[in-house]
Amino acid sequence: MKSVQEPVKTPRFNLLDYDRKGLEAFFVALGEKPFRATQVLKWLYQEDVSDFDEMTNLSKSLRAYLKENCYLATPEIVVEQIASDGTRKWALQTSCGNRIETVFIPEEGRGTLCVSSQIGCALACTFCSTAQQGFNRNLTTAEIIGQVIVAQNRLGDTKRITNVVMMGMGEPLLNFDNVVAAMNLMMDDFTFGLSKRRVTISTSGVVPAMYRLTQVCDVSLAVSLHAVRDELRDELVPINKKYPLKELMDACRDNAKIAPRRTVTFEYVMLDGINDSMDDARGLVKLLKNVPAKLNLIPFNPFPNNTYRCSSKEAINRFKVFLNDAGIVTTVRKTRGEDIDAACGQLVGQVEDKSRRHLKLKLVGSESAA
Ligand code: SAH
After folding, report:
1. What are the boundaries of each domain within the chain?
2. Among 163, 116, 117, 77, residue whose Cα is nearest residue 370
3. 298 CA to middle of ligand 1, Å?
4. Does the domain spanning 13-71 belong to CATH 1.10.10.10?
5. CB 196, CB 144: distance < 8 Å
6. Matching CATH topology for 13-71 and 76-364?
7. Which fold does the domain 76-364 belong to in CATH?
8. What is the CA(333)–ligand 1 centre distance, in A?
9. Half-sphere exposure (CA, 13 Å, Cβ side) for 184?
10. What is the predicted pLDDT for the residue at 359?
11. What pLDDT shows up at residue 353?
């Protein structure tokens, strides 16, 4: 008998690329009912079942279709570093061989995961080490939610991810759809169930995307301000040339109306002799007067080939006291994971290959109390 070669079909759809709405549309397009989305989310994220044959409440024909056309893939951990303060940094490898970094920061009563949204970054902020890599590509939804899945698996049952901040590599609002779908998944009751107060997106100020975000997703917003004058902000955060401070502050006011705590958090990196004078502090008070704002001062983390220095402890403290006295709730970000370069702006891949597979789709339940 003549042998006939079966055409080998590669599964086309990574089911981790879909949030609930996306999955509903996917099933409706197959002639199925939208509630299949909930059933599949439950199997994947709550029951830890990744074999389609085991999804017994789906019809046999649907299971067969999923088996043939769908797959589940997350990035894989290739390097793990654990700092003396318990902070963990992972280098994850995507299917095309690129590497991204994810950081877990344990604190009293909570665990925050810092998630990347792009490979590299196009925004060229002068004090940020990711900017030095240039831009490679957007991460897929599966690669973004995959960071949470892989990190929680690795942490096991003892340490729970209670908060996610989109503050890793990249500008999340320039990867809008994939980031929003991943954040929807983080907040879905049938997946991680994080509250919108515990999911934060940080942006350098992509103004049109900020308005769009306000319309579709009410997570917490953090804005990388770093300067109170356009001239200086143009230099530190070059996207300011396109969307200057006035436009940025209008977009922040718009977002504050729906923000979980009706507040926008402003991040302000403390650069010695650049943006840390009392004039800058007064400028901040003026700028933030009409925005419900919290301020987070970030000590600058130096990295090679960069001439900025971090403001002195005294300067940071003086700044903080002045702003608090002026009625703006101001905190100083603790630098964590210093011995493994896990701090802000340090997520530039210096990795070695120690491949280990941690792909099991074991997920967490809902968040602990706020
Ligand atoms: N692109 C997003 C997320 C980036 S990282 C944004 O700009 O908000 C999160 C924060 O770390 C931003 O506020 C960023 O400005 C800050 N950051 C970057 N490099 C830093 C460095 N070397 N030291 C301290 N903070 C830094």
Report:
1. 13-71, 76-364
2. 163
3. 9
4. no
5. no
6. no
7. TIM Barrel (3.20.20)
8. 12
9. 20
10. 32
11. 33
Ranges in the chain, pLDDT < 50: 1-3, 349-370
Query: 3-class DSSP state for residue 80?
Result: strand
* Residue the block writes with tokens 């990744």: 50
User: What DSSP string runs through 23-78?
Assistant: HHHHHHHTT--TTHHHHHHIIIIIS----GGG-TTS-HHHHHHHHHHEE----EEE
Q: Is 345 in the pocket of ligand 1 (CB under 6 A)?
A: yes
Distance (Å, rounded) from C-alpha 262 to C-alpha 41? 31
Which pLDDT does position 336 carry in this prediction? Answer: 79
Return the active site residues: 101, 344
Give the model confidence (pLDDT) of 126-171 as tens digits: 999 999 889 999 999 999 999 999 999 999 988 999 999 999 999 9
User: What is the b/e burial string over 296-330, where b = at least 16 CB atoms within 10 angstroms of the residue's CB?
Assistant: bbbbbbebeeeebebbeeebbebbbebbeeeebeb
Read off the DSSP letter of residue 271.
B
Give the torsion sign (CA, 210, 214, 215, 216).
positive
> How far is the C-alpha of 235 from the C-alpha of 241, rounded, in Å?
9
pLDDT of residue 312: 97
Q: How many residues does the chain have?
A: 370
**pLDDT confidence of residue 261:** 76
- Please indicate, yes or no, whether the overall pTM of this predicted structure exceeds 0.85: yes
Nearest protein CA to atom 11 of ligand 1, as residue: 344
Tell me if 151 CB under 6 Å of ligand 1. Answer: no
DSSP-H helix ranges across the chain: 20-29, 36-41, 60-69, 141-155, 176-187, 207-216, 230-236, 245-256, 278-287, 313-325
Tens digits of per-residue pLDDT, 43-95?
999 998 999 999 999 999 999 999 999 999 999 999 999 999 999 999 999 98
Cα of 262 vs centre of ligand 1, distance in Å, is: 23
